Amino acid sequence: MLRIYIFILVLCCAGHIYGYLLQDMQRNIVKIITSTSHGNFGDWHDRQFCVKSAYAFGLQIKVEQPVGRGDDTALNGVKLHCASRDETIHGSISSGVGQFGSWNSPTFCPSGQFMYKFRLKVESPQGTFGDDTTANDIVFECSRIDSRGCNLTTVFAEGGAQWGDWGDWSDACPVNSAFCGIQTRVEAPTSGSDDGFK
């Protein structure tokens, strides 16, 4: 059996650029947010960032659907779609991605909103002979960068897997910031079982 665990870390960038040099671009990282539900396996992959002055406004996940008697991995990848505040689209980013499953259709925040917090749906360990999938689905909350008081929108990924329970919401990016980067921790295939994101 194969193991693939994925743990998610996102980075909040301020609405103004004046800061740290990361991947040949300047981003002002104001907060690093990790998922509240995760495992302890795998290696961190490189951080990936939206281009300068762009933030995450869309979400796409790679999921292996149930395989019956085989080993299920569920969530195998998360892709963030990036746009600037004037709604110019700037491609997508992802960190480590598992080998199983396929990419589902993306979902997006409403016009003028960007992602600022998230939560994972995670299956608890199933014991020695159980089929652990770990992360199965993810949901983000969107808001305007300059306020969090009203017009919040929850964006569910399309095609998440069925197992597990929703964890708590992550911390939120501060006002005047939004998600701008992602880093995942993925356990490479082993001779054990196939497990997806941590």
Automatic annotation (TrEMBL):
GO cellular component: extracellular space
UniProt KW Signal keyword: yes
One Pfam family, short name: VOMI
Entry-linked Gene3D superfamilies: Vitelline membrane outer layer protein I (VOMI)
Superkingdom of this protein's organism: Eukaryota
SUPFAM superfamilies on file: Vitelline membrane outer protein-I (VMO-I)
Range of residues in the leader sequence: 1-19
Keyword Signal: yes
Protein keywords: Signal
Protein name: Vitelline membrane outer layer protein 1
Organism, scientific name: Dreissena polymorpha (Zebra mussel)
